[in-house]
């Protein structure tokens, strides 16, 4: 399997880094990373990783202006077969550009081609609150079978720290690409329903 991962300039870079770590742990997935310009400003203040360390987590890395990259020309020609793409985190600016189909850099050009080729595209939108514009963009992309996943915590897992929240959410993102990629229940707890005498049960 081959996946394209893009990290854009919004808060939540830990999500993208953990996703790359998880894909490397799986070992059977070839990762192609596109780093947009702004993560260089948001990465190091949020997590103890440099841009160079993040680049080393991927098999191949591209810059945002590299529209002649093999990843792009190969997709256009059909010689580069990617199973899908994840934009994590995805700024609302990137969301709007993807919806409009305005390929202004390698991130949005790649999403444009992935949508055209009907490959799976997952956008992890990080910013909040959402205006009507953001919601309309999300709705229009949903009609194109694009999956939008805000990083909502799974409270039923009773996370102890931010790492637990990030690990669980990244597992749910990988679930979008099938059981050979998604984690098992030992790694990411699954919802099993409420206990019979749960304090949250009616009555």
Automatic annotation (TrEMBL):
Enzyme class: transferase
Keyword Transferase tagged: yes
Known EC number: 2.5.1.129
Reactions catalysed, as given in the entry: dimethylallyl phosphate + FMNH2 = prenylated FMNH2 + phosphate
InterPro entries: Flavin_trans-like, Flavoprotein, UbiX-like
Span list, region Disordered: 180-203
UniProt: FMN binding residues: 36, 126
Pfam families per record: Flavoprotein (PF02441)
HAMAP family: ubiX_pad
Protein name: Flavin prenyltransferase UbiX
Organism for this UniProt entry: Streptomyces silvisoli
Gene transcribed to yield this protein: ubiX
């Amino acid at each position: 399997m081959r996946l394209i991962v893009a990290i854009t300039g919004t808060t939540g870079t830990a999500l993208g880094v953990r996703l790359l770590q998880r894909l490397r742990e799986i070992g059977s997935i070839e990762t192609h990373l596109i780093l947009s310009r702004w993560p260089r400003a948001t990465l190091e203040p949020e997590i103890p990783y440099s841009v160079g360390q993040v680049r080393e987590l991927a098999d191949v890395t591209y810059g945002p202006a590299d529209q002649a990259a093999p990843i792009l020309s190969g997709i256009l020609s059909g010689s580069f077969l990617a199973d899908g793409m994840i934009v994590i985190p995805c700024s609302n600016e990137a969301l709007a550009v993807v919806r409009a189909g305005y390929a202004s850099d390698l991130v949005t050009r790649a999403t444009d081609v992935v949508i055209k080729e009907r490959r799976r595209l997952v956008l992890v939108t990080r910013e909040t609150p959402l205006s009507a514009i953001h919601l309309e963009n999300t709705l229009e992309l949903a009609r194109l079978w694009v999956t939008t996943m805000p990083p909502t915590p799974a409270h039923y897992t009773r996370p102890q720290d931010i790492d637990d929240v990030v690990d669980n959410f990244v597992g749910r993102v990988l679930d979008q690409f099938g059981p050979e990629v998604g984690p098992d229940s030992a790694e990411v707890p699954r919802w099993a329903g409420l206990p019979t005498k749960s304090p949250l049960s009616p009555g």
